[in-house]
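Entry 0007
Protein: ABC transporter substrate-binding protein
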Amino acid sequence: MKRVKKLYLTLLALLVAFVSFLPVKAGTLDKIKQRGYMIVGVKYDFKPFGFVNEKGEVVGFDVDLVKYIAKKLGVKLKLVQVTSKTRIPMLESGTVDLVAASMTHKRKRDLPIDFTISYYFDGQAILARSDCTAKSYKDFAGKRVAAIQGATSGPNFKKVQPKAQIVYFQEYPQALMALMKGKVDAITTDYTWCATQAKDSHGRLKVIGEPFTYEPYGMGVRENDSDFRDAINFAIQDAVMDGTYAKIYKKWFGKEPTRLPEVWPK
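Output (structure tokens):
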């Protein structure tokens, strides 16, 4: 009897071990459809992609695009603020279902999470006060250059100008204030944000030189969640095909898109 019981326990242990190694379907698409809404992490301080307007509303290119995606999926949308530093941890922890936060698709970032197709294409630039005499990143040796924690702009800038001193901030408003007060000589981040800040400053700020990196934006989804990633990819491609993408693009960037996200044949 003892021998039978021992055999039974051994088989049970093997069964538990086998089941624990079976792939678990993430099922985000099913979850949000059951829940009735999709939780999306967006930035609140990165105009024109995601920011708070004068009415206190969260608006921007990323916001309009995820509104379209939520409608395509037949669910409501709940926005949650993320920063460059928190967006991937909040996705991994399940706090948000999707991250649409001007996030460059890098190979290193693709290890802990997955990305959708690229939906916007930018490059890194430099924002400085209008009295700055620099012509490019080459002129920032020994200068204090602000970057945001969790973004790739700080390490990128060090590669092209190792003699610059990178000063890190948690969010963009803090870096912008430091620049205006002369505590840093410049901010380095994506060109579109820099150009928008220069325009809004009414001559107090300007963009230095041309973009010096390639920054394709992708939306972040959890690893091994292919049904959900497919649904987001298809919705982005639908936006391109029905003209919504171009309409949103023109609304926020004031021109027709110079490059569209890829569209797969049906």
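Curator remark: The first helix runs from residue 2 to 20. The first strand starts at residue 37 and ends at 42.
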